[in-house]
Design brief:
Number of helices: 11
CATH class of the largest domain: Alpha Beta
Shape: globular
Largest sheet: 8 strands, mixed
CATH topology of the largest domain: Rossmann fold
Strand content: 5-15%
Order of helices and strands: EHEHEHEHEHEEHEHHHHH
CATH architecture of the largest domain: 3-Layer(aba) Sandwich
Helix content: 40-55%
């Protein structure tokens, strides 16, 4: 399979490593706007060669959009337009996927395109707080879930190729519509990042006056604030595109924070205990 990866950061680079290592990709072409990242990806052997977007689409059977969702929304129609030019000659069987954290706008923007069937909307639920080709690693996707959205709008042959690719990455597929995906992502992923960003800002503000806070930081603090290291270029468009869902989640989160504040302020130990015990129910879901 001739594979093209657009965006050679953590996700795109990690996919390149394992798709090559496990024999899915016969060759990998890379597209990367950042010259430093592009040179690093080539020198590290993540890709066989660097190409333009047009060359990538022309030469590859499978195109992976691994760029921030704001850029993906602009690039997806361009790629489908290139597919259309090939299809005019009756020969386009190429497939394009994205790996972005929000799906609704991407699915909407592709909905009426004549080559919509060659697009498969996906979200591999894997990642770290690090970015760039240096963050790429083997085994990043092992055992994780991959969401495939609105698969009924895609050509079954295209979906099959994508299922084979994620099976090669040792991921388990989950099928849902894009609207539901974005609601769930707001609860399980996006609010976690906002919470981490806010905690980091709170502690950094206090650190101006108390220099020993980070000397006292334990593993619990480090794991809680870990996501605050995440790249703004990735998360700003996610928060913007999933605005309505995130605002609803934030309202609920603020309500729970206020419940803790009220109980603590009122020396209400039973109230605090009740909130903690209620929160402990998460152990049934996450072990």
């Amino acid at each position: 399979m001739k594979t093209g990866i657009i965006g050679l950061g953590l996700i795109g680079g990690s996919m390149a490593i394992d798709l090559r290592r496990k024999g899915f990709a016969g060759s990998i072409a890379g597209v990367e706007a950042d010259k430093v990242n592009a040179a690093a990806a080539l020198n590290m052997g993540l890709v066989d060669r660097l190409v333009t977007l047009e060359e990538c689409v022309s030469e590859c059977d499978l195109v992976v959009l691994a760029v921030p969702v704001g850029a993906a929304v602009k690039m997806l129609p361009e790629i489908l337009d290139m597919f259309s030019k090939e299809d005019a000659q009756g020969k386009c069987r190429k497939t394009v996927i994205d790996v972005c954290s929000t799906k609704e706008q991407l699915v909407k923007i592709a909905h009426y395109h004549p080559m919509r069937s060659r697009y498969v909307a996906t979200h591999p639920m894997a990642g770290t707080e690090y970015s760039g080709p240096w963050a790429a690693m083997p085994g990043l996707f092992d055992g994780k879930a991959c969401i495939i959205c609105n698969h009924e709008e895609s050509d079954p042959a295209a979906v099959h190729i994508v299922e084979k690719m994620y099976d090669c990455l040792n991921m388990r597929p989950i099928y849902m519509n894009a609207v539901n995906h974005d609601v769930h992502a707001a609860y399980v992923s996006h609010i976690s990042h906002i919470t981490s960003f806010a905690l980091a800002l709170t502690v950094l503000d206090k650190e101006k006056n108390e220099k020993h806070i980070f000397d006292l930081a334990s593993g619990g603090f480090s794991s809680t604030v870990r996501l605050a290291k995440s790249n703004a270029d990735m998360w700003v468009p996610i928060f913007s595109q999933n605005r309505e869902n995130i605002l609803r989640v934030l309202d609920t989160y603020i309500e729970k924070i206020n419940a803790f504040r009220k109980a603590i302020d009122g020396f209400d130990e039973e109230g605090i205990r009740s909130l903690i015990v209620d929160a402990n129910r998460i152990k049934r879901i996450i072990r």
